Amino acid sequence: MTAFALDDPLERGPGLPRPGNVLRTAAGSVPPSSLVLLGIFSVQFGAAFAKELFTALPPSAVVFLRIAAGALIMGAVARPRLRGLGRRDWAVGLGFGLTLALMNLSFYEALSRLPMGIAVAIEFLGPLGVAVAASRRRIDLLWVGLAGAGVALLAPWGESASVSWLGIGFAMVAGACWAGYILLSAAAGRRFPGTSGLAFAMIVSAVAVAPVGVTTGGAGLLEPHLLLIGLGVGLLSSVIPYSLELQALRRMPPHTFGILMSLEPAVAALAGVLLLGEILHVQQWAAIVCVVAASLGSTRRGKRE
């Protein structure tokens, strides 16, 4: 169940529509492409706010705040049921949650060392790899080469002092986890009803991240203003974009959704400039363009197929 699936055929009374009806009507009046773009901006601006927290908390503690907030909200909405789950269901759910935990930990570690646009561009190689692996067209080698050229442009060979090898490594781990997340998400969708699979995975992820997050965050996690910002990051980075994307996918073809999602690295770079003052070099912008173009190319090829 999502925020847009709360409607009930029974009316509350004259002139008092159900909250779910209001939300669904409001979302239905917005073009699906706009919902996807709103979701993208929500994710990247949430990441920018999370990065602002790095001055007060280490990345692992911020990850814990984000995932815990998302798990509480998604768990309350979806209410995943554990009864009746088989061993394979548990294996998929636990693997999904652990992958989600590692993806977020590695991405936030990359984010603490790299400008946002660069971190997201490298991480985006994960879903791009999944898309290319599903195709056997020779032209996909072009998109692989283009994405590889983008990463080569980002490598700190000379003047790119703002880029570190360790940050690139963390971003690549996050990208590999994102690829696993996509595959496990599909598997969870076949075994768990509605959004309960994602809610279950987020709860597992929060439990897995808790030891390192609480240990590194310490008493700082009890600061009211940090908890409030962490809740906001959880909403912006998980709950809101997922709900918007789910609603959009009901009204648009998957290949169109994929084309719009290819804009994520560019939006991340824009959020970094506007919110964090991360001015990128021309070479770095060229690298981001290479990754976006590779993603667009592979997605449009999928449409023709």
UniProtKB/TrEMBL annotation:
The chain crosses the membrane at residues 56-78, 90-108, 114-134, 141-158, 164-184, 196-214, 226-244, 256-276, 282-299. The keyword Transmembrane helix applies. Its main location: membrane. Residues 166-297 form the EamA domain. It is a multi-pass membrane protein. It is found in: Cell membrane. Keywords: Cell membrane, Membrane, Transmembrane, Transmembrane helix. Belongs to the EamA transporter family. This is EamA family transporter. It comes from Actinomadura luzonensis.
